[in-house]
Design a protein that fits this description.
The complex is a heterodimer. Chain A is mainly α. Chain A has helices at about 5-15, 20-25, 30-40, 75-85, 90-105, 110, 115-125, 135-145, 150-155, 160-165, 180-190, 195-205, 265-275, 275-290, 300-310, 320-325, 330, 345-355, 360-370, 395-410, 410-415, 425-435, 445-455, 465-480, and strands spanning about 210-215, 225-230, 240, 255. Among the domains of chain A are: about 105-280, no CATH class; about 345-485, no CATH class. Chain B is built from 13 helices and 13 strands. In chain B, strands 1, 5, 6, 7, 8, 9, 10 and 13 form an 8-stranded mixed β-sheet that branches. The chains are: A mainly alpha, B alpha/beta.
Amino acid sequence: MGRGQPQTAHLLRRGGFGAGASELKAFDRYAPQAVTEYLLNFERQPDDVDSKIQQSAYVSVTTRGGQFQPNLNIDDARQRWLFRMVHSARPLQEKMALFWHNHFATAYSKLAGIVPGVQATKMLALVEGELPGPQGQLELFRQMGLGSFRDLLVEVARDPAMLVWLDGRVNFRTRPQENFGREVMELFTFGLGNYVEQDVYAAARAFTGWNLRLEGGDPQQPTAYYAFLYNASQHETSAKTFSFPIYADGGKTIAARSAADGMQDGLDFLTALARHPETARRLARKLWNFFVSDVNAPDDEFIETAARIYLQYDTQIKPVIAYILQSSVFLDPANWYTRYSWPAEFVVRAIKEVGWNGFSVDTARAAMINMGQTLFEPPDVAGWSLGQEWFSSGTMLARMNFAATLAANQRVNLGRDAAVASSSPDDFVSYFIDRLTASEFDAAPYGYLQTYVASGGAWTGSPAQLQSKAAGLTRLMVGSSEYQFI
Amino acid sequence: MHVSRRSFIRGGVSAFTVTLAAPEFLCDLALAQGARSRNLVVLYLAGGNDSLNTVVSYRDPFYYSRRPTIAVPPAQVLQIGTDTAGNAVGLHPRLTGLRDIFNQGRLAIIQRSGYANSSRSHFQGADIWGTADPSSPSNMGWLGRYLETLPRDPLTAFTTTRDLPRALMSRQISVPAIPDARTYSFASPNTGDEAVNERAAATRIASHVPVERPQLAFVNASARAALDTLDRVATFANYTGTLAYPNNGLALALRTVAGSIVRGLGTRVYWVQTGGFDTHAGQGVNGGGAYATLMSTFNDSVIAFYNDLRNQGLIGDTMILQFSEFSRRISENGSNGTDHGAAGIMMAIGGGVRGGIYGSAPSLDPNPANPTLENSGGDVRYETDFRSVYARVLEDWFGTSAIPILAGDFKGGAPAIV
């Protein structure tokens, strides 16, 4: 039984990246509630997924010049992240990292236009301790993804990648730089309609002097690194007044401070944004779309409850996710398969279900470009256009063609596995319906799948026929619309 | 932030259903109209183009006092004359090809185009330009609404981006996205008859209309839009042109568009875009640097496209319409950049365009009473409603009534660019 318990499979598609048959089998003896706890309390699982890279039982990575350098080469960083999505014992950790990567969308190409590529990759993906320097932005998301949003927001504001991406590194005292000050309100917290143009000016001033420093000499060298610098001499010290409350007493003005203490301006501002009720609601809406549905609109009660929990727990994310994964709307089968899969989710789930023996995640990485999602390269600071906007003729063709590539690569294994269902074309189709967890095929397309398997001559069940039909059927199913939803 | 587009599929599935269920597309009709039909190439400069450095008011002392490092020096400006208000303006020094087109009378520059209460958000701004509806920018696109008035054909429009821009969104038509025509083909894990059978099955599966699940119908429409256009796209996938195009994404997209025009497939609307215009920092000093590189990409790509079509006698059928979601603040910031501003310029280029300088340049005097500025003298105030330009294109280029498409009559004051 490939699909396992339906609710468990739903939990793993949403709280992770789906599961292959053997993973689902392992979960079969647990009640869905236990699976939810497994996902949420991921710190109980080993954090050793990186150690499995380049071991034979796992999906491959492609080396360049014999080297795999995920802290220094951005394509290798992409491969490492895809590998983690396929094999991590902590799927929700990677899922939340993907959510925050989209939320705080930061693109490699701008960074690499300003600092050397090795530094840009370190800023985004360095695992702490593997080379000198602060951990990369992705690691912030992995380590803090279920923690306090306020703390995450502060770390992102001081994150070297963000300081390059939104130009904070050059936000100076005399003529402040507005990029971060605007986007932190429009996109990272409460959103349009909650601030006015004067707030943009004031926010830009609050972050003057939040700059960068270079350590370790020549930035072309892997051992050099960039780190946050509070540059007091570049901080603009006068008072900043906003149109919304900054302090619990309703005060809207950050009072003038000495330059030495001026970093507190930005901290006060970020804390106010994180605790703002509209930030709570906006995050709740994004989490609805991410975890529950981006076909069905959120119900107000869900949004208000999730927002209340967020504020009650002082911006902690884990209680919000726990509420979501156990909510009646999440568990309602009417909301299953109502999330358009992101390209990363699509390729990882396909690899998990179709197989990976002899397959490299680099093939998935390259195919994702035409699907419209290159990791560490969101199109702009708003992140990817989600939901149905993932789908155009070009991106759908890329998904179909990835299905073809993966199916061709796995045809021998697929044909061998499907030998248990070789008695008739209909049994053969049933086997793949069970193995590849698409949403339900209506009778007509189900019939087209059967017609395809029965086409082109008599059914013999020979190994050659099983291989070509297994590959063709896998390609049709993984490339179907029914498979594009999680 | 993104305005939700979820409403797209609600109420949209029935229209898609009808389109998909139609027994045949009107390809023959489109082909018959083909080679000589007028087309529109939308060229979107993503990120908010700093139009004050594209078209320079080089005699305005405030241009230089407010942009002490990033201003284009007067001696570098490519002079093109004065506007109706008597302001001397010129092009960025990298826009030599555009100056040639201007001198041929085929480049129209519309100064201070925009709308009231300009959004300074990239995303809301782009949606407003895409819907032509500042009050409700989450609807379908203005070009999508135009396409609905044409005979159905799966290649009536296409975008060279991966995502469908809002301007081309429609409840009835799934516009193809062809980011790279050379890889726009059907792959199979098998060969020969097996692959043929598989493609037939894929087409049948994608033609199914699951009425209870509009989201599936929507994705099926995307798959059908691919399957129905593959063979025609293949006819221009390897088009190289009558001259060498520059090796950048914009030029290669324009080359694909030129190939489609030359093959005469009847496509009416194309979308191309290039990014990097969100120049908050380091945009370059004295007319050089990063912004000059952006201008080179823009200029070199457009002039190659223009000359390629002109060489083949086809430029008279084509209009390029260029815009950006907003322009930038007048005063430079402390990092040789400019932050989000308001009104900017539009350009129209083509063999049927009536070239010239339309509208008036702003005075950049920061006096809050300056009527050509807004936001206490910080940003440029619009003079020409961008929808009036859309109306002119719809009425006088495409010969259709703009009022139902734009949900209003915006032609009053429209610059006579056609």
